[in-house]
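debug: dumping io for the single-chain case to check the tokenizer round-trip. Nothing else runs in this session.
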Amino acid sequence: MREREIFGNERGIALIIALLVLLVLTLIGISAISTTTFENRISGNERAAAEAFYTAEAGLEKGLAQLPSTAPIPVTSLIGGSSYWSGGPKDKGDPKPFIAHGDYVDYGGPASSGMDVADNPPGTYTRYQINATGQSFGATREVEAQVLRDIH
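debug: decoded output
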């Protein structure tokens, strides 16, 4: 009879099973919160990197607009805390001028450096190298352009 009392009373097992299910659900919840937080950080970093890249492109456009002047672009702040300047990431305190690689005469013929023959008529050109750096939310991106400018 005593044996029946021990195995017959199973009311405590429901509590143990409920606690185990709660533990599993809690672990799943914690894992989901951790994953969401991690994904949120990744998307924030991508946003900052994209904004820094577009800010650097704004500096590049500013440089293209000022050619043939090779004067450096000072640190220029934009709305939202982003900024750009000419040169590399280490040149923020002292922006560097653009590089003019000199004049050369092109007599037409085969295209040079990826240009179509129709885009490369005979003439005298100056080649410029423009480096611009953008910074936004702690992310920094640098862009470079090689530009041929016709000399008239």
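debug: round-trip ok. The longest strand covers residues 123-136.
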